[in-house]
Amino acid sequence: MESGIVTMNHECKATSTITIKGILSLLMESVGENKDDSKRVISLGMGDPTLTTCFPNTKFAEQAVADALHSAKFHGYAPTPGLPQARTAIAKYLSDDLPYELSSDDVFITCGCTQAIDVSVALLARPGANILLPRPGFPIYELCAAFRQVEVRHYDLLPGKGWEVDLDAIEALADQNTVALAIINPGNPCGNVYTYHHLEKIAKTAKRLGTIVIADEVYGHLAFGDNPFVPMGVFGSIVPVITLGSLSKRWIVPGWRLGWFVTNDPSGTFRKPKVVERIKKYFDLLGGPATFIQAAVPRIITQTDEVFFRKTIDNLRHTSDICCQELEDIPCISFPSKPQGSMAMMAELKLSHLDDISDDIDFCFKLAKEESVIILPGTAVGLKDWIRITFAADPSSLRDAMKRMKFFYQRHARKQ
User: Fold this and answer.
1) What strand order describes the sheet that includes 212-216?
2) Chosen domain end from 303, 318, 346
3) Helical H segments across 194-265, by residue range
4) What region holds the Aminotransferase class I/classII large domain (predicted)?
């Protein structure tokens, strides 16, 4: 009976964890209460660039998938770690930015980056384990940890320093049961891109603490500011790194669910027989992406035109500029720095400028109801009284949304 109660309590903890999709669905329901049907809904809440015509995917990738499907060679099961040719292509793709070569044995194919996150937490889980996660961050990590009974310890990102990791906080939080330090770069939800030197400091800190680094690079290469994208795997010789990524963002195909879990470890920590066997056995439990999509990966990765990537970067730079310019005209919202990468940014609410708004959740629900604009309350990503705005949107929709937010501010502005 007692074990059943423990299980129930654990389940309650997991199901009470906030999810972005859960809050966004509630916000959409709030829009339904809006009496003004003339306002179309503008969602700046979900990091799905396919929802806009401004970010088309490459037709070449579609053709590669179609050819793989029509070949009739890929209707059966793939090996549980993934098709060998897909693993080899991903290893080569990632190695191009590293001072050492990855092999196909370092790469495991997952159903998007979300499954890669769950795999990383599940493989590290053990009694008493804790994991260090960024705040603000991506709440799927907390959800995975709750289901795996891994304690979460949050370290802060520093808005005044380009959302850098608070390394002093990490030193204070870690102990002998810390199994990993997770970072997200380029940053979701902050839009930051870490410098080479900051990433090196993170690697050296993790080494000193005797833990590994989980590097969430789902937005890898989507950097358009002053800092170029540097993969954490560059520092794999200092500390073992698990790199998580996918085709989703850079190739604008999140619905294809093609991700990867990669061990960056030239010193061989992950190549110990027991570790390799544990990873392989865990992947035997999982169903990977559709075999024909895996089969298309080598062509997608090696033959996509650089013009496609440059256009995506230029569009993100343009829409992020629009977002920042328009936000400067809304007194109740401020942001510490312009985005450098990814597809989202964090902005702070100045509640003292508003008369009848209690917090970020209240702000977002009233904005949805009155203006049919969806943005994510910062509470959903761990930062109360902030908001996350996704700028991967059509410029006209982005301007319209910002205009409505300005009207919303004027309606709720505190009287002097």
Assistant:
1) 107-111, 258-264, 241-246, 212-216, 178-184, 130-135, 151-158, 164-165
2) 303
3) 196-209
4) 40-403
Q: How many Cβ atoms from other residues are within 10 Å of residue 166's Cβ?
A: 16
| Domain stop point among 286, 303, 320 | 303
Residue 208, domain member (yes or no): yes
Residue 411: other Cβ atoms inside 10 A: 13
d(C-alpha 267, C-alpha 354), whole Å: 55
What b-and-e string marks burial along 291-325, b requiring 16 or more CB atoms within 10 Å of the CB?
A: bbbbbbbbbbbeebeeebeeebbebbbebbebbbe
The domain total for the chain is 2
pTM of the model: 0.94
C-beta of residue 191 within 8 angstroms of C-beta of residue 218: no
Element (H, E) at 345: strand 344-349
113 alpha-carbon distance from chain centroid: 8
Average pLDDT over residues 373-388: 97
Asked if residue 416 belongs to a domain, the reply is no
pLDDT band of residue 195 (cuts 50, 70, 90) is very high
Q: What is the pLDDT of residues 99-135, one digit of tens each?
A: 999 999 999 999 999 999 999 999 999 999 999 999 9
d(CA 163, CA 125): 28
pLDDT beyond 80 at 37 = no
What CATH number did the domain enclosing 405 receive? 3.90.1150.10
